[in-house]
Amino acid sequence: MDIPDSGFESQEPRFALPVDSEHKATVFKLFSVAKPHMRAFHLSWISFFSCFVSSFAAPPLLPIIRDNLNLTATDIGNAGIASVSGAVFSRIAMGTLCDLFGPRLASSSLILLTVPAVYCSSIISSPTSFLLVRFFTGFSLATFVSTQFWMSSMFSTRVVASANGLAGGWGNLGGGATQLVMPLVFALIRDIGAVKFTAWRIAFFVPATFQMLTAFAVFIFGQDLPDGNFNSLKKSGKKPKDAFKKVLFFGVSNYRGWVLALTYGYCFGVELAIDNIIAEYFYDRFNLKLHTAGTIAASFGFANIVSRPGGGYISDLVGRRFGMRGRLWVLWTCQTIGGVFCVILGRVASLTVSIIVMIIFSIFIQAACGMTFGVVPFVSRRSLGVISGMTGGGGNVGAVITQLIFFTGSKYSKETGITLMGLMIICCTLPICLIYFPQWGGMFCGPSSKKQVSEQDYYLSEWNSVEQEKGSHHSSLKFADNSRSERGIKNGALSTPATRPSDDAPPPHV
């Protein structure tokens, strides 16, 4: 994949890719490992992939594990909730840590901290210990936030959704890969000579070791920003130190972040819920073999090869033509269609039709995930990590609520739960209509003609006059200039010159 630039960004000789004024890459070369942009891309998705594999290594082996540990349906449901609930808090914290310390250190540290939980999966002996290892392993899913933050720091506004979509989507592939790989690893170990109740325990050493190796790779070979790591840039004065309270404040006080957190809970959150139950669903409902059920379940996650990246690419494509309003419209449309197919999935009784509907559902719901992070980078410049963490955490909250309501205990059959989950997707996608950027507009109306608000006004409102006098706002000013493309071609994104507001007249909070 080679996404072309728009033809007017600057070229910096010391970078392998063309860059803009923030030194963010303006093209995306998929098969390049050029430092720092493309190397960050490959390190981020591979490390996130490893965390996904670890977090969902248990579900494809549940028919064996439940017999060994005497797990009830309630035990399995609670463990599924635990596997995604821990990441609710870790994702929010990860966003703040990325803002303050950089994605490289934040990501590698969390991955290493959760590796022991994966190894401990091999020694569990009760429903309680099964729940605990799934809970602590799930913390690693917060690396999604560092992945999205890293891509938003490395790629310009015109290709950022494509970069976010590919990194997040290929990382999510771990959810499909583990459905396919873990049964094969289990079978291999069993065939070598281990009894089945020992083989599944040994199998967990594979994802644990893989996760540990990716943590070292991120720490050793990664770089936070195009110009260097956070620590060295702060020491040299090139990156001003920011205050934790203000970074947090401008994140949590921006309602757009909360709306995206809610809607992301019913695209990515649904994806997590499906990862937890889909193999068991096909195994029980259609009386399939373990490996067959795992292979079918893997196809849901493997759709991320094209679906989430495709969603990001479509968001960028529509954004270049119609601006932010176009991004919001395609996000709402795609996620709503995904909800419709989720309803259908719960209603069909044919194995073949169920597989086809599941794949269509997965494509739309995962594309919506990519489209969501086509909007997230524009919500706040100063608190990008916090907004990313809120949105990512919202995905896990959605998974917890969905799992708790529909897939825990025996209140609903799995097919009924899937149908009701689809209706919830449709309803919880509607708030996208409430997102409004004063400089660009929203789904149903453009920017106000009475009160002219520019990109500079919006992003510099996060910095007071004292901070602007110190020059802390310069990165936001550059981002504001580069984000003018969100007006769309029809609204003059390429024809209206950018202007800088004077430092002695700070913009109003918008």
Automatic annotation (TrEMBL):
This is Uncharacterized protein. It is a multi-pass membrane protein. Pfam families: MFS_1. CDD domains: MFS_NRT2_like. Keywords: Membrane, Nitrate assimilation, Transmembrane, Transmembrane helix, Transport. Residues 469-510 are annotated as: Disordered. It is found in: Endomembrane system. The chain crosses the membrane at residues 45-64, 105-124, 131-150, 170-190, 202-222, 328-349, 355-379, 386-406, 418-437. GO terms for biological process: nitrate assimilation. One of its GO terms (molecular function) is nitrate transmembrane transporter activity. One of its GO terms (cellular component) is membrane. Belongs to the major facilitator superfamily. Nitrate/nitrite porter (TC 2.A.1.8) family.
